[in-house]
Amino acid sequence: MSSLFRQMVWDGTVPLAIKLAPSSLPSSSDRMLDTYFIQAPRISYLPLLIPEIRQNLCDLVLDEATAAALREEDWWFETEKDNVLKWHWPIGLLYDAHFTTMSASESCFLPSASSLSPPMPITLYLSNPPADKLLLTPSVESLKSSFMSQCKEADFLRWGSTRRMTGLRKTEQDGLWDAIREHNYDNFWKIGSKILPNPNPPSPLLNSSPPTPNPDGTGAATTTNDAYAVRSIPLRLFLPNAPVIQDLCSPVTQNGVHTTLGDLLSASFPLLFSKGANIQNTSISGAYAVVQGMEPPLETEVGWLGASLAGADGWVNVCVGLRA
Amino acid sequence: MPEMPDDPAAATEFPSERMTVDENIVFSSTFQVPAFYFSASDESGSPLSLPALIRSQLFHLPLPLSTLNIEQHTIDLPGPESDASPIPLLTQGEHPTTGRMCWFLHPCETSGAVKELLDHGAPPGERWELHWLKTWFVVLGRVVYLRGISV
């Protein structure tokens, strides 16, 4: 069951509408070719799209001399509201965060979640990147380094050490990143399954999970990949125009039951998500939460989210928005 | 990449250049310890490169530079075997509150260093959190020049 969702997350894409900034276009450019639409993988990153954008947009719009002189490390992306898009955020997160932020602004009433996803308008600038908002050294190498950092942080949160990540050989670590670049699901999960947790069938009992078979007979705690045995789910909460919220998030509550998304949201944002008298939590103010472009029911267990709806870097990104 | 002297204090490339350093101590949610975040720019306001930073007076590393793997975007300690993954020391990341990109000293190894000092030191005469934080500053001070630079 988890592999179904993992495949869905891997295959998930979002529409982007990329336009070159007028200020980046010399007068000799072909301005008839306006916008390049791309269906980008959620688990990928903007800089990885650059070769395709270069070939399909820049090379067509710009004259040969200008196109040849382009320095890709000077490229940067922005949304309509002058919001610089972070290179190290997965594209799916950029998309979800953008639309939940839009939903919260008073002048915008977005259609309900069940309708088609609109393309995200992005402006591409070819020079003068803002130094402090992007990666300090924009390059695919530093993006890879950032990705590895995120994987290690997620590993640490789950198990209290980065042993699983650092235990991988360098070729395996490189293999994870290469699989993202090449968008190869099998190559990714061949290595990913060593570090990312497996969910168990939902059960309110703490000790219902069978340990991973371990030939040398040591305790299950050192080898289990049980999603419900983690210390904390690597999870971040994104509110419109606010700092990212990240707290310890145990998969099991003090009462021994599995923590739900509703539990987490009502604890973090009590004014947006109230805890109902019964198990089902209700959102009273039109607030909603998006994970990988979907709105999971509030009864969804966070342990399961951590195993099935996390991004390639292991993080569950929850974007909170408001709907009229 | 030019040859770097092992002792950064012997580097003569930045004898009197001013740099502006913005230093923050932020609690790392992931590692549940304080982390040292900073950004630095030169006189013109341009951000300093990482190799330039590591050679500046801001750092006095207890290790010779030749043992480290210094890149434009990260500084790490090579792993114990040739195919082992490197241990990150200085990387870039988002400041947890401002969202700006900064460099930060990886907190992964900090807890261990603090614990070691605490285990070998005298019992605290004050609240343990304060004692822990003071010890953390001692660990930080081994790597970063914390006093104001006097001319």
From TrEMBL, chain A:
One of its GO terms (molecular function) is Atg8-family ligase activity. Residues 232-320 form the Autophagy protein ATG5 UblB domain. Residues 9-103 form the Autophagy protein ATG5 UblA domain. Keywords: Autophagy, Isopeptide bond, Membrane, Transport, Ubl conjugation. Belongs to the ATG5 family. Conjugated with ATG12. The keyword Membrane applies. GO terms for cellular component: Atg12-Atg5-Atg16 complex; autophagosome; mitochondria-associated endoplasmic reticulum membrane contact site; phagophore; phagophore assembly site membrane. Residues 141-197 form the Autophagy protein ATG5 alpha-helical bundle region domain. GO terms for biological process: autophagy of mitochondrion; cellular response to nitrogen starvation; piecemeal microautophagy of the nucleus. The keyword Transport applies. Residues 200-214 have a biased composition (Pro residues). It comes from the Eukaryota. It is a peripheral membrane protein. Residues 200-223 are annotated as: Disordered. It is found in: Preautophagosomal structure membrane. This is Autophagy protein 5. Involved in cytoplasm to vacuole transport (Cvt) and autophagic vesicle formation. It comes from Dacryopinax primogenitus (strain DJM 731).
UniProtKB/TrEMBL annotation, chain B:
This is Ubiquitin-like-conjugating enzyme ATG10. Keywords: Autophagy, Protein transport, Transferase, Transport, Ubl conjugation pathway. The lineage of its organism: Eukaryota, Fungi, Dikarya, Basidiomycota, Agaricomycotina. InterPro entries: Atg3/Atg10. One of its GO terms (cellular component) is cytosol. It comes from the Eukaryota. Belongs to the ATG10 family. GO terms for molecular function: Atg12 conjugating enzyme activity. Pfam families: Autophagy_act_C. The keyword Metal-binding does not apply. One of its GO terms (biological process) is protein modification by small protein conjugation.
